[in-house]
Amino acid sequence: MKRISLGHLLGRLRRRQSVARRAAQRGLTLLEIMIVIAILGILIAIVAPRLFGAKDKADKDLAKLAADQWAFKEVPMWQAMNSGKGCPENLLMVAQSVGKGQSDVEDPWGTPYELFCGNNLPPGAVGIAVLSYGPDKKKGTEDDIKSWEKNK
């Protein structure tokens, strides 16, 4: 019969425990994964609406700035360079005269800005007016962005 020393037995036991410990630490349990997913879901539910709200506001602010830029700078400059022509037919004509293109006369939602001047000015507008149909892309709705009105 072979004699086994106590040190040898303790060494074997430590190796087995070490192997078992490494196997247990190799991955996450299903419960741990579910907890992480739940935490991420809660964070997304809190943060996402704020991010989307900020983008909507930024798009509206950008549309207002562009409408004002067309109405109070670009079109008057075009009229000064083209005296005697009155109102341009559309903003694309103005854009092309200053080296801009079709995408420059579209609002953040891809709809062309509408130009008003002369006899077709909307109520409350004076001189030149530019309109963005807003996020819903429909004229005459509450979300329209008008150069002749203050930001809402």
Strand order in the sheet with the most strands: 1-2-3
Mean pLDDT over the full residue set: 86
Number of domains: 1
Q: Structural class, from helix and strand content?
A: mainly alpha
Please bin the fraction of helical residues.
40-55%
- Using the coordinates above, name the CATH class: Alpha Beta
Record field, number of beta strands? 3
Q: What multimeric state do the chains show? A: single chain
Question: Can you describe this structure?
Answer:
This protein has about 150 residues and is mainly alpha-helical. The chain has one domain (about 5-145): 2-Layer Sandwich (Glycoprotein, Type 4 Pilin), CATH 3.30.700. About 50% of the residues lie in helices and about 5% in strands. The protein is built from 3 helices and 3 strands. The chain has helices at about 5-25, 30-80, 90-95; strands at about 115, 130, 145. A 3-stranded antiparallel sheet has the order 1-2-3, covered by helices on one side. Helix 2 (about 30-80) packs across helix 3. The longest helix has about 50 residues, at about 30-80. The radius of gyration is 34 Å and the shape is rod-shaped. The termini are far apart. The model has no long low-confidence stretch (mean pLDDT about 85).
How are the SSEs ordered, and which strands pair?
Layout: H1 6-25, H2 30-81, H3 91-97, E1 114-117, E2 128-132, E3 145-146
Helix pairs in contact: 2-3
The gist of it:
52% of the residues lie in helices and 7% in strands.
